[in-house]
Every structure is written in C-alpha cells, then in structure tokens.
Amino acid sequence: VQLVESGGGLVQAGGSLTLSCVARGVTFGDYALAWFRQAPGKEREGVSCVTHDGSTYYADSVRGRFTISKDDAKKTVFLQMNTLKPEDSAVYYCATELAYYVGSCLPGNYDYWGQGTQVTVSA
C-alpha cells in the first residue's frame, strides 16, 4: 500500500485548498480512508474520514468547513478545505486501514500513512 498526498500550500485566512491522496494497492470498497493533521508541538488530530461504504465523519473543529470525498475509480481521496483559519496550519496526512466501520472511522487504527503535505494559513 502506498499513499501519496498533494495539494498543500500557503493560503490566506478565509481561503480554500483541496488536498488529494492517491492510494495504490488498495481496494477502496474494503478500506477506510482518513485525513489527519499535526501542528508543531501538538498531537496528531483526526480531521475527517470516509468508511468503506462512503459514510463520512468530521472533527468538530472542521465540520461545516471541510468536505471529504473519494473517487473509487481513480483511487483518490480528497479533502476540500474552505474558510481556512490560521489554526488549520499543520502537516496533513492521508491514512488508510482495511476495516469495515459501523459508525465513526475516527480515530480508527490506521496502519498505512502518506508522507504528509504542509498547509499554512496566514492571518
């Protein structure tokens, strides 16, 4: 399994970014997919996830601003981030797990991780 993120960058507060993660070696119908983030000096935080059957979950801090989606044919999971705030600045990681969640897939038990992509939101 290999996960490759892209789409990070520098954006002003109130702006938007879309992160992408291509998952190789994964059958999307069998895996949960998630986005986590980690800011300097802080613990890693689960941001959003999508279960094998398409149910989505969000951390309270991003609900209503972020949207997770997946394209099974392209084996890609996306994180659309709107109304970004400086506190959203972090390295964002894509993760996946062979699991059939009933209920939330956060925090999960993810065992495959991407290399991360930096998101910086300026005030």
Please tell me about this protein's structure.
The protein is mainly beta and 123 residues long. The protein has strands at 2-6, 9-12, 17-24, 31-38, 45-50, 56-58, 66-71, 76-81, 90-98, 112-113, 117-122. Strands 2, 4, 5, 6, 9, 10 and 11 form a 7-stranded mixed β-sheet that branches. A hairpin with a 4-residue loop joins strand 7 and strand 8. The model has no long low-confidence stretch (mean pLDDT 96).
Features:
123 residues; mainly beta; 0% helix; globular
Would you spell out the secondary-structure blueprint of this structure?
Elements: E1 2-6, E2 9-12, E3 17-24, E4 31-38, E5 45-50, E6 56-58, E7 66-71, E8 76-81, E9 90-98, E10 112-113, E11 117-122
Parallel strand pairs: 2-11
Antiparallel strand pairs: 1-3, 3-8, 4-5, 4-9, 5-6, 7-8, 9-10, 9-11
